[in-house]
Every structure is written in C-alpha cells, then in structure tokens.
Amino acid sequence: MSGYLTTHVLDTARGCPAEGVRIALYRVTGDTRERLAETVTNADGRTDAPILPAERFETGTFELVFFAGDYLRATGQAEGDILFLDEVPIRFGMSEAEAHYHVPLLLSAYGMSTYRGS
C-alpha cells in the first residue's frame, strides 16, 4: 500500500459540509511551489477522489490552499473586497511513505482550524 492525501471542509458557522470550495495542492521545495492538483469540494465537503492519490504520492512538504473567500461570499457569510479569511494556506509535511494523510479545514468567516485527521 502506498500513501495518499485526502481533505475536506466543514462550515462550522452553518454546521454543515462546505460544498463548492476550490482547493489547490502544491509541493514545496525551498522557496518553490509546484502546483500538483486543483479540485472542488462536493456536497459532503470532500473531494471526489484523494487530492494526492497513491500512484502520485511522495513524501515531502506540501501546501493546501483553500479558496475560502469565494465560498464565504457565495454563502452570504462575507462580502466586500477585503475579507478576514480569503485564501487559507496550510503547509504540512508527509514523512510516512505508506500512510493516509487527511488534512481537514474547519471554517467560518472569522476563524479556521485544522488537524491531522484519519
């Protein structure tokens, strides 16, 4: 078995999955970021497939960027050009070659949290 990466977004203000959040995944090497994938969350707040599937998995430093501002505007939770939370980057390391990494985002217009899930 090879490792893989999944994510999902929960809207803590509304108490539901966050559907329609665009997410980009980058590999980080020094000062360089390489875009590996981009996807959008489904009705369950998850991606339809792992954002980094087993056949493309490598250990290293990565960054998920959640385009939260677009979602918050679309759901009427934020407005205007300048938001408290807009693009939310989460930089993390994956060091176990055969592990499932799950990095969720708990989101509201004025707060966010993440953790290594299962």
Key attributes of the depicted protein:
118 residues; 4-stranded mixed sheet; single chain; 4-stranded antiparallel sheet; mainly beta
Q: If helices are DSSP runs of H or I spanning 4 or more residues, what is the number of helices?
A: 1
Distance, first to last CA? 16 Å
The tally of beta strands, per DSSP, is: 10
**What percentage of amino acids are in beta strands?**
35-45%
Question: What would you note in describing this structure?
Answer:
By secondary structure, the chain is mainly β. The protein has one helix and ten strands. It has one helix spanning 68-74, and strands spanning 4-6, 9-11, 16-17, 22-29, 32-40, 60-67, 87-94, 100-102, 105-108, 111-114. The chain has a four-stranded mixed beta sheet with strand order 3-2-9-10, with no helix packed on it. A hairpin with a 4-residue loop joins strand 2 and strand 3 (16-17). The longest helix is centred in the middle third of the chain and has 7 residues, at 68-74. It is globular.
In short:
The chain is built from one helix and ten strands; from the N terminus they run ββββββαββββ.
SSE order and pairing:
Layout: E1 4-6, E2 9-11, E3 16-17, E4 22-29, E5 32-40, E6 60-67, H1 68-74, E7 87-94, E8 100-102, E9 105-108, E10 111-114
Parallel strand pairs: 1-8, 2-9
Antiparallel strand pairs: 2-3, 4-5, 4-6, 6-7, 9-10
